[in-house]
Amino acid sequence: MRSSRPMPGNPWPHDMVLRIDQPGHLLTLLFIRAAWALPTAVELPPLEPVPDAGASAMPDTASRGEWAARWEMAWQRAWAWYDLDGVGQRHPTPETLRSLGPGSPLIAEFPPMWEIEHGDAGIDRAAFAAWSMSQHDDHHKPLEEHPERRNLDELIPAWRSGIESIIVLPYAGYFARRVNRRHLAVCKTTRDDPDLYARALREST
To answer: Which of 114, 133, 152 is the C-terminal boundary of a domain?
Structure first.
C-alpha cells in the first residue's frame, strides 16, 4: 500500500505504510486461556468466535494456579514486546531462537511465544489453526472493501499521529486501545463495522 510517488486519483497517501497484524503469539494465549479455562486476574472481553478447544487440556505438570500465573506473565510480556524499537523488523538468527526461554529478555526480532517458553503440551494444534484461520477473511474481499480503504478518512489522521500497525484481536463488541504511539489494537468486530472502526480511529488520535 505504498508507492514511491503520488498517484493521481489514488486517495491513499503514497508514503503511508500500515501493517494489519493478527498476531499469532496473542491468539495462542487467548486460545489457551479459553481452552484450559484458566482463572486469570486479567479482565478481557469475551472472545468471538469462541474457540473449539478440541482435544486441548491443561497439562498436569503444574497446578491450575501455576499455569494461570505463567499465562499472566506471558500475557504481560506479549504486550511489552510492542514497546521495543524496531519490533518485527528482522528475522531472528537460529542462535537467538535457541537462547529464548522462560523469562529470557525480549528481542525486537521475535515476539515471546508460549510454545518456546512452555512447550505446546495441552494445545490441540488443529483446533487452534481452525479458530485462527476463521479470523482471516480480508483476502476474500475486493481491495476497496478492505476496512482501511473504507475508513480512509479516519485512518489518515491516525497514521499521521504515528500509528504504524493495527493489531486485530478476536473480541466481541467494541474494543479499541492505543497500545503506544505506533500500535493501535482493535477487535475484528470493531474493524469490520465501518462506524465502530471510524470511532476507534478517531479516538486514537
So the answer is: 133
